[in-house]
Amino acid sequence: MKVPLLDVNAQNLPLEEELTATFTRVLHSGRFIMGPEVEALEQEVAEFVGAKHGIGVTSGTDAILVALMALDIGPGDEVLCPTFTFFATAGCIARTGATPVFVDACPVCFNIDVEDAARKVTARTKAIVPVHLFGQAAEMDEVMALAGEHDLRVIEDAAQAIGARYKGRGCGSMGDFGTYSFFPSKNLGGFGDGGMVVCNDDTLAERTRILRMHGSKPKYFHREVGGNFRLDPLQAALLRVKLRYYDAYRRARQENAAYYVEKLSVLEGVAPSSPEHCCCARAQEKALGETRVVLPVCYEHNQHIWNQFTLRVREKGRRDALRDHLMDRGIGCEIYYPLTMDQQECFANLPESSRTGNEVAHRLADEVLSIPVYPELTREMQDVVVVALGEFLGAA
Ligand SMILES: Cc1ncc(COP(=O)(O)O)c(C=O)c1O
User: Helix axis angle, 318-328 relative to 379-395, nearest 10°?
Assistant: First the structure.
């Protein structure tokens, strides 16, 4: 049996009738730029995540870029961001002309190590961009405390964490801005590119809306240079349909993750990370001893939405061997991410000080492997993955 890493048709085709009716409604409206569908999605997403304003944009990448622009981040500024993340987080900072300063990761939850962030603050630091990686919140109390101490702005990159919660609060709703992606593989996956910015401040929201439309207000009068960062009404309307099913998708991912933990943790050499030992929450990684494969954890104070279920394969070179083993058996898996940001060629010319001290993240880049956890995965398919992992461990 083949087990793909993701199956968008399994999620979308059961909604075919509703989606087709929605397409027809937008087609007949004749309104293809901005308007009521975009506004409705903005309100629905803002309410869903617990923020005051929602601003629909072209992608999760542009969401980060326009948020940085609205905060006047630019040349001469430094912005802290995790080095273990998807490229967009760092790429957007660099595109404003600011310098991304790469921060190490927690080996337990994979998120930004706030103690390392604190070490890397300088007089030029203007902002911090925590990423809620793989669907679990970063340690936001510590991020906000650090930001308060140094007067930093906070943009939460919640591309992978729409609907995830930290101590009851929605990921994306705690900083100056939160940004989301509707890329098809995300937990609220659209039909192409799309994104959303949320914030609680009226002035920042207004500025972001203006920047989204070339910086123009009124039309054809430009006080500043913005871009075309508009979300399509068709995309917005289709996403509104899927938002209504979000809770079922989330529950299914959580149940799938729990099933993996139950079945995989009994295999010899497999152990879960210990949630009380998170370095970004000021603790040490638990001694892993003979553990060969480490399972991801969900902290008690978090609601994890499992955008990815990411293993760590600790023996040198064995991660790639496991990937090949799974692929040979028709099981989709992926390395998120094989290189950290400080290791990327495009950042090789950044000052040495912005690229140092990321040993944990480098180790993670060598060890991580994400296996299928999407909502429509069946128990039978998960059993195929569990058996394949068992074989791999038994054969070594
Ligand atoms: C952490 C993170 N940030 C930003 C993005 C960018 O989102 P998009 O692909 O919608 O531009 C993604 C998604 O790919 C992501 O995973």
Answer: 130
